[in-house]
């Protein structure tokens, strides 16, 4: 539980007081992930090949995607309308991506006030696509 909580709320100054006052049982409830606080990345585990993956997920529905060669971009849409973009090391890279931020207005609706998007920022050539 502590490992899970630290991945979504990587701040011991928040976790320890909750742990002392409420115990382990309430950590997930009292230390939720929050837009604006970068999360620890959930990194993939290398395999020897596709067959190993298929065996591991035998009988289980799963989805997979291409591995794009870019830069991790954890995009935080905040309720006040601001946007923060963090690297896999929780560094604030917001100023590197004005073009990404410009496209995010379309993600906001009456039902979406805030969100965290875990993405890969990839360069795109408009001509070669």
Q: How does this structure look, described?
A:
The chain is 27% helix and 14% strand. It is of the alpha+beta class and 129 residues long. The chain folds into 2 domains: 1-32, no CATH class; 50-121, D-amino Acid Aminotransferase, Chain A, domain 1. A hairpin with a 5-residue loop joins β1 (71-77) and β2. It is globular. The model has no long low-confidence stretch (mean pLDDT 88). One of its GO terms (molecular function) is DNA ligase (ATP) activity.
CATH structural architecture of the largest domain:
2-Layer Sandwich
Main β sheet profile? 3 strands, antiparallel
The CATH topology annotation of the largest domain reads as D-amino Acid Aminotransferase, Chain A, domain 1
Number of helices: 5
Instruction: Give the N-terminus to C-terminus distance in angstroms.
Output: 43 Å
The helix/strand order is HHHHEEHE
> What share of the residues does DSSP label as strand, in percent?
5-15%
CATH superfamily of the largest domain: DNA ligase/mRNA capping enzyme
Low-confidence stretches: none
Number of domains: 2
Mean pLDDT: 88
Keywords: ATP-binding, DNA damage, DNA recombination, DNA repair, Ligase, Nucleotide-binding
Protein name: DNA ligase 1
Domain ATP-dependent DNA ligase family profile: 41-128
GO molecular function: ATP binding; DNA binding; DNA ligase (ATP) activity
